[in-house]
Amino acid sequence: MPTKVELNTKIMDTAVFRPPQEILDVFWSLSDGTDEERTAGTVKLCKLIEKSSDDIKRQILKYCLDRLIRGLSSNRKFARVGFSVGLVQLLRHFKDLALTSVLDTMKEKLKLVHQEQKSKAAVGDVFMGRAFAISAIIQSGRISQLDDSELDSVLNELLKMSEKKSYLKPVSHKITEDLISQISPEKYEAKIWPKLKVKLQSGWELCTLDKLSLLIRCREMFPKVTKKKFVQKYWGFPLFSEDNDDKLLKAILDTTQKTELLLEKILPHMLKCDRDIVSIWKSIGEKLMQSLRDNRKESMSQRRCVGLQIATKLLSTECTLEQLTEFILFPNLARCLFYFSTQKNDVLEKLADALCDKVVVKLKEFDANTLEIVKQIWKLEVSLSEPEKSKIVNLVSSHNFTRILDLLSESQAEKYVHILTSAVKGKDKWSILLDSPEKQTKQIESCLRHLQHITCSQKHTTPQLQQSVLSLFLRLACFKVEKKTKSIEHCERCCNYDLEDSRQTLCESSFYKCLDSLSTLKHSQHSKWEQFSKYLQLLCHLVEYIQTLLTTEDIKPLNPWPEEIKSEWNKLFALVTNIKKEVEKEKDVSLSSAFLLLFLFLGINMLTDFKTSTDLLKDVYICYERATKEKKMKKKDNEDEPHWVEVVTEVLLSLLLLQSHLGRVITTTVFKAILGHMTPTAVGLITDVLIPKKVGADDAGGVLVDTGAGGDEDDDEDELEDVDDTSGEDEAENSNEEDMEADEDDDEEEEEEVDETFRKSVKEALGKAAADKEDESEEEELPDLSDSEMFQLDDMLAEVFRQKKLAGGKKARQEKKKETDNFRIRVLDLVETIIKSERCGDFVIDLLKPVLLLMLKTNPVENQVLCDKSKSLFALLRSKAKGQKDSIHSEDYHKNILIELIELAQSVVDSNHLQAVAAACFTVMNLSCGDINKTSPALPSHYVDLLRETLHNVIKKPKNSLQFLSLLIDLDPMKFQMLAPDVLSCLKDESTKTHSKMICCSLLVSLAKKTGTLNDADKKTLQKWMTEALSYIQELILSLEKQTSKVKFTNNILSLAVALQSRTDIFQQNPFDVSVSSHLLEIKSSFNTDLRRLANKIIAAIARSHPKVKAATEKKRNKDQVENVSENSPAKKKKKV
């Protein structure tokens, strides 16, 4: 083996050389590949060099070394990274490759001469390439092999590099640190430290985090050489004492991009110097996050992000509760920790959330007095907001503050609610309310939001707390206290808000939000009835509280109540009181409790929407009376009047029209309670809402008619509107009158933005009569126009205004359509309740078609939510219908529904929709079957007749859908075996047209599909018609001719043959004769690809049953191959040419 010097000499003398292509390909993977490809490429490169022959091995090695070092200066993609990894692997693998050659190649390929002729970027790339070359030597672990002169050269190169380019300083310092980590103490003291000492003697002057990190590494590795005296003289000792904090802060500000150095290296050293998190943050973090005088937002945001990262890192260490409390109460930190942002993907907010995670964990560990911390945060907000010119600092309005509130214990939450309630009513127990009315309003709003949050918290809420807070919201939102009344809760002080005041509006919204949230709040320890009962008790308490307020002389509603409202309220309160006594005796949800819930909701809703509530109450009063009377009498008095449950259903649908989630929850709850009394007519009221019917159209409202891309004629809005759109002079005159009245009203309001498009249209219509400027003098005479010109101008202006009205009407229709779709989504909640109930079987037939039509009608582009929900409910309905029995509807009614669905299938084009219609038909037929224990129960005779009629229409009338019947049969072929003889008879009939025979073959393929294990009776049924079909299909196959056969008809025949022979459970051996195989072998050369594939399946199956046929088939195949070869021979081709 040659020595290093000999190897180096031979490499240097190598002439221009090109290595094998596989080695060249590796370099592409190093520069353009992924991390895995680069890693694999470096290993592959070394193996290829190792496997190469000795005579070119040195040349390949020299080429690779040159190219790797030259590529270090490239800025193309990942070339610098990949080539650096490759060089490290090369130096590790070939130990005999002298480092001198590497340094010489670096100087040769990465020259620094003629820098003035190069661009700044090119010079920087050269320096970066040299840095990566030196780093590769260090990472290879062979730095100790450098002699003194080479080591000196490397260090000079690094120091020179840091002085040349500022952006190279971090790279230079990092490589120098790596160098120090691998050097011996002797070489460090003799060669490295003398030069670094000069550099580090400048101390904190122009110090960066990289320079500081280099000093730390020197002290860690060689403390006896880098002595304490040196540090104390030039830097100050301890290095991270409080005296040096300002200097360290300056270094941090100068190198904010090196956050990882600060977090991973410098902060741990600071904590080792007997410093706690409070000391470090006070000197470094708090000053780092101070607001800049010049208001540089980008720089400020960057500093705050660094500060939050420092704070998060500090909380990862040990601290006491006192230190933690003092830490989070630093003003600048608190501003960012309790940060409120309306922007998406706010970096500062994410960092604040990460810090809050640490704070929450620490507080849980210490089992801290959270209420005291909450109080201190309130106090801090007050102190930061006190200056007159300053804006209020919303610390307590942030999401992270509510996370602190969630740590309150139940008793602490109760105390906090008491403090907040007192503050809202004007009694400031914590001294946290500011003097400024504007700022105090913001604080009161924060208190109200905190009350809502705690009331709806599963951890903190209690029945007493709910009653107290909701009573407060109710009193402030709807009533005013003219004289103190200590006997009534929340009336001991004359704290009132005017209508439309932000606090009054917030109280009203918080009241309904709490009711909404508490209606669905679940307690693991309570049963459904217990939760329902507690919610009823809450509503009863609120109604009683309203009654108390109304009957107190010194308390008045904010909106004065006329006698009509008072009388309606008294009537409702008396009824609620009576029903409450009955419900208290019950132990489960009943009609009485459902009506009580409905009465309570409508009563509370009277405070904000009196007309709607009273209109609905009139019907509910009658329904309650009939329901309770029916319960006692067990029958209805008057058969002509609608059943009470139908009227209640209409009331519930009206509640769903309200833009209230609480109304939606109440509706669903009441509907579940009355579900046992539902009738088909009541269900029909719900389904009529889903698909409004249009006079003179199909049941789908014209949904199945293709109106083109721009058709708006079939919109639901048009179907629901009572007023017809007409055109003419009367309409134009009315429109102009309305426009004039609107203009008069607009004069009294603020000036609105002008529609420039409409202005332009009017100007074009006026032509020369249009004014060029808005401020043009009124005295200027307009051009005289003739009568005809005036009439023409009038017509043009009328057209302009008509077009504007139509445009506005289209927008209104779109908004109304959106409202209608949203209403349907809410109504589908009731449909889902029916499907999931025990009475699902009784109403499957009523729900099936409306849900199907809604699914077919809904455009997923316009309303994806409605489309998805209708699809999911249709699937749920089909699933729940299995095994169900309908005890309400007659078989004739079922048959009529099935006829309607079959007729619907004739109009559907989309295959997915057609499959849904087939599934609906199948569900109807299954629902009518009595014995649910059978695998495939027989269909009633009237269904069989209907299916045979449908089959006849499909075969004889081309317009009827074959696909629909096939999809229906595919759902359960055994259920439709009674159709097989009819189909087969039609197929064998000589008078049947070819197209009809093709349909028969397709249907028989569907009927022949295997679905599961068969009993003996089913096997006999199948064997009977299949045997008959086999003989006829065999005749058809044998009658096929080579050129005259019709492709589609042949395809159907062969497909049926394949389907029949695949039923090995019916036929033990292949049912076809050998002659079929022979005939197909003769004629299949004229078949296309699809027909040939089917023929080969038939031939192969026959061959498996008959060994002689298999041999003949192979002989035929070999003969065809020989003929094909001879046909393609050069001689044959020449003759053809």
UniProtKB/TrEMBL annotation:
Ranges of biased composition (kind: Acidic residues): 711-755, 773-787
GO cellular component terms given for this protein: nucleolus
InterPro entries named in the record: ARM-type_fold (IPR016024), DNA_pol_V/MYBBP1A (IPR007015)
Record keywords: Nucleus
UniProt-annotated stretches for the region Disordered: 702-787, 1108-1137
Gene Ontology molecular-function annotations: RNA binding; sequence-specific DNA binding; transcription corepressor activity
Extent of Basic and acidic residues compositional bias: 756-772, 1111-1122
Compartment(s) of residence: Nucleus
Family to which the UniProt record says this protein belongs: Belongs to the MYBBP1A family.
Protein name, per record: Myb-binding protein 1A-like protein
Native species: Biomphalaria glabrata (Bloodfluke planorb)
